[in-house]
What we know:
This protein is mostly helical. It has six helices and two strands; from the N terminus they run ααααββαα. The chain has helices at residues 11-14, 23-36, 39-54, 57-72, 109-117, 122-132; strands at 92-96, 103-108.
Amino acid sequence: MAKPRTCLHTDEERNVSKCGDCVICRTERQKRKRLEMDPELRKIKYKEYQNKYRQTEKGKAAIKRSDLNYKYGITEIPVTSCEICGDADSSLVVDHNHQTNAVRGFLCFRCNLGLGHFRDNQTLLWRAIQYLER
C-alpha cells in the first residue's frame, strides 16, 4: 500500500524515490536539518566528510587532477607509460624544468627521482652513462 500523499508537488515534479518520498520534499527537509545544525558542528561534519572522501580512490584521483591543473594547466596525463623506462605499471608523475616550470613529460617515480638526483645536469648524466659502460 502506498504512503498517503503529504506534499503538494505534481507527479512530474515529485520524482518519487524508492521509499515513496517526494524527492523535492526530502531535499528541502535535509536542507532545513543542516541549517538548524550548530555552525561549528556543521564545519566539523563537513571536514569529516572531506577527509573520508579524500581517502577513497575517487577522491585521490580528484586531488591529483586538481593539482595537475593548478600547477601545470594539465587536465589529464596523456600517456600511459614512463617516457624513459616504458614502465606502464606505476603511476606517473609530471617531470618539469625547475627554472621555467615547463612540463617536459611524464615519468615513473623512479626515473623522475633519478633525474632529480643528477640535478637535471646533462654532464653528470653523461658521466654516469660512461661509468656504467666500464
